[in-house]
Amino acid sequence: MVVGDPDKMAQQIIHRVDQGEGPKRMALGSDAYEQIRAALLDKLAALESQKELAYSTDSDDVVKQF
After folding, report:
1. pLDDT per 10-residue tile (average), the chain, 66 residues
2. Which of 1, 31, 44, 66 is deepest in the core (most CB within 10 A)?
3. CA distance 10 to 8
């Protein structure tokens, strides 16, 4: 099943170009949004799991803020 509407997507791309600003990347379609969100949450979880390691390698004179 196709979720996204190509005409609506094209309209949004043209609108962003005409504005001359906006995000470099756009999530077009709810399926794209959900996939991107899941991938970013996985990356954030991987980063959070390394927080203690990251802070443990700071210089001894750095004030730790957890």
Report:
1. 91 92 89 96 98 92 72
2. 31
3. 5
Tokens 């390394």 -> residue: 50
Task: For residues 28 and 14, give the distance between their C-alpha atoms in angstroms, rounded to a whole number.
Answer: 13
- Give the C-alpha separation, 56 to 51, whole Å: 8
Residue 9: name the closest of 32, 39, 37, 38 by CA.
Answer: 32
- What pLDDT score does 57 carry? 93
Which structure tokens are listed for 21? 């600003």
Amino acid at position 49, single letter: S
Please list, in sequence order, all residues whose beta carbon lies within 8 angstroms of the beta carbon of residue 64, skipping any fewer than 6 positions away: 55, 58
